[in-house]
Amino acid sequence: MTILVAGATGNAGAQVVHELLALGQRVRAITRNAATARLPAGVEVVEADLTRPETIPFEGVTAAHLLASAGDDYAELLTGPDLLRRAEKAGVRRITLVWNGYRSPMEEAVTAGPLEWTVLRPGDFMSNSLAWAESVRREGVVREPFAYARSALVHEGDIGAVAAAVLVRGGHGGRTYALTGPEALSVPEQVATISAAIGREIRYVEQSEAEARDEMLRAGRPAEFADVLLGWKRDMPAEGYTVVPSVEEVLGRPARSFASWAREHADAFR
Q: Any idea where the NmrA-like domain is (predicted)?
């Protein structure tokens, strides 16, 4: 069967593509810029945009991996009802949806719709730590606010593996899965783990919230996104730091640790 993957060039979406290929599936990847997409051989790449449902090629697709938000500004999608009508008409039977941090209009449309759905609610991605790579290489320093905040980080590969298993094998209709790693870590603990992986000391410097916000704005992040992200970290909800066994329940193996992620990506920090 052909499975459609939205956000196929993102950290998690690329892993969904990888895992589907490993399961022997045909993959149709959609991206807003096909010219810059770097996807494996054999993947059908189509230029399309979730904010324009008429561009989404659902024809011949039996399952689809969708997102609750899209675009560089991570704006919530308001096109869910139209997307789902088009998917149903084309014969799509099963959908996975990755949330955007709260119950969004897209999630409401999917869970109220006619198709077999599974909502995936990953916490912080381990791959977000790659944002520190340049400062670690240049200065041996990580600057982040909220040293006290702990997060049950999830390996992006586990997100991809769960999504692929659900899309291919089914059996998870009507379920919402929080996805976490096996432990909740503070930023200083994450820094120490990366330090151990590269065999070099890394200093943690706690930023103020204002400093962190200014840095995100300078990097081109929208102000609204920066405020939401900082608010999440400042007052972390229980679901952000509570470890759950969903990855193991779906895949039959434990979730991967941050230490294993750090070893896999050690060269990025050297």
A: 2-95
Domains, in order of start, for the chain:
2-123+155-180+242-255 (3.40.50.720)
Burial of 163 (0-12, 13-18, 19+ CB in 10 A): buried
Give the span between the Cα atoms of 154 and 255, in whole angstroms: 8
Cβ atoms 88, 114 nearer than 8 A: yes
Write the CB contacts of 157 (distance below 8 Å, at least 6 apart in sequence). 15, 18, 19, 256
Nearest 5°: the CA angle 263, 266, 267 is 140
The pLDDT tens digits along the chain (270 residues) read 899 999 999 999 999 999 999 999 999 999 988 888 889 999 999 999 999 999 999 999 999 999 998 766 667 888 999 999 999 999 999 999 999 777 789 999 999 999 999 999 999 999 999 999 999 999 999 999 999 999 999 999 999 999 999 999 999 999 999 999 999 999 999 999 999 999 999 999 999 999 999 998 998 888 888 898 898 889 988 989 999 999 999 999 999 999 999 999 999 999
